[in-house]
Amino acid sequence: MLTLERLDQKAWRFQSDWPLGADTHLDEALDLMAAGKLGKAEKLLRDVLVVCPDHIDVWHHLALVLEEMGDSLLSYACTREAVRLGLNAIPKEFSWLTSLLEWSVLDNRPFLRAYHTLGLYLLEHGRADEALEVLSRLLAVSPNDNLGVRYLLLECHLTQEDWRAAIHLANRYSEDTSPSFSYSKVIALLGLNEDAYARECLQEAVLQHPRVARELSKLRHIRPKSSIPGTMIAGGEDEAFSYWERNKAHWTKDSRAYELLLELRRG
Q1: What pLDDT, on the 0 to 100 scale, is given for residue 40?
Q2: Residue 267 lies in a domain
Q3: Which sign, positive or negative, has the C-alpha torsion 260, 261, 262, 267?
Q4: What pLDDT shows up at residue 22?
Q5: Contacts from 82-88 at CB under 8 Å and sequence distance 24+?
Q6: What is the DSSP string of 44-110?
Q7: Range of 264's domain?
Q8: Has residue 70 been placed in a domain?
Q9: How many angstroms separate the CA atoms of 41 and 65, rounded?
Q10: Could you tell me where the beta strands, DSSP code E, fall in the chain?
């Protein structure tokens, strides 16, 4: 049975009574996934669910396997089930505004991962309003943000053209100088007609992340080959392409942001 128990005034932890062998089989399934043996991994994960139908991490990884195998609809259903199990375990005393589900508490990670995956799915499928609720909750209960929820939440605000919320989030993580914040803040500032400050921020962004500036300026975008599949190099061409790919709607050739970027690059 899955429950959520209070650790102190704010902190909570998921508790379960799954059989010891369940996590061993999960680890075996992860090894199969890493080896590309998705069919065998799927079967093993389904077998574990027969014994432990409320194992969030098994549902989550089954969703990942199914997505990799091309069954996006069933993958989404598995993610929904993982999240449902977690939400159902949360008692009424828990507050999404003041309680904490810290990543440092290992037992919290399965739910946090599954909820993050749901938020990402909703955002990528044009359901920004639903994604906003999920991502805002996640960032509130896990403010250290080991999963990078703030980047998705920023995308959400930009998609909804909530420029002030985007600026507020950027200021909250003012020490984050990643492309997601340094370039996207410019979009929000232009949306608020703060052109002078937007120019200043964009100049700094170009200096910090020149490869992103070059990628955004291109007429044709080609996905670079990663030297280490499944990873992204900070400051690399793959990071630059990833930023463009996720934010290209705001950097179209007729956008004010794009025009400002070209103006700055021309000197």
Answers
A1: 96
A2: yes
A3: positive
A4: 86
A5: 82/56, 82/57, 82/110, 82/111, 82/114, 83/111, 83/114, 83/115, 83/118, 85/2, 85/54, 85/56, 85/59, 86/2, 86/14, 86/56, 86/110, 86/111, 86/114, 86/115, 88/2
A6: HHHHHHHH-TT-HHHHHHHHHHHHHTT-HHHHHHHHHHHHHHHHHH--TT--TTT-B--TTSGGGHH
A7: 161-267
A8: no
A9: 7
A10: 3-6, 12-15
Listed as ranges, residues in the chain with pLDDT below 50 are none
- Cα-flanking dihedrals φ and ψ of residue 53, to 5°? -70, -10
CA gap 75, 125 in Å, rounded: 14
Q: Which residue has the tokens 């937007």?
A: 198
Nearest to 184 by CA among 208, 157, 160, 221: 157
Question: Residue 11 and residue 135: Cα distance in Å, rounded?
Answer: 19
**Is 173 inside any structural domain?**
yes
As a dihedral over the C-alpha atoms of residue 155, residue 157, residue 161, residue 164, rounded to 10 degrees, the angle is -130
**pLDDT at res. 76:** 97
Position 169, amino acid: L
Tokens of 150: 């703030």
Residue 250 lies in a domain: yes
The pLDDT of residue 226 is: 66
**What's the pLDDT at 109?**
97
Q: Which of 246, 15, 14, 55 lies closest to 141 in space, CA to CA?
A: 14
Return the SS3 of 5.
strand
Q: What pLDDT is recorded for position 231? A: 63
As for how many domains the chain has, the answer is: 1
Residue 189 — φ and ψ, nearest 5°? -65, -40
Smallest CA-to-CA distance from 258 within 222, 221, 216 is with: 216
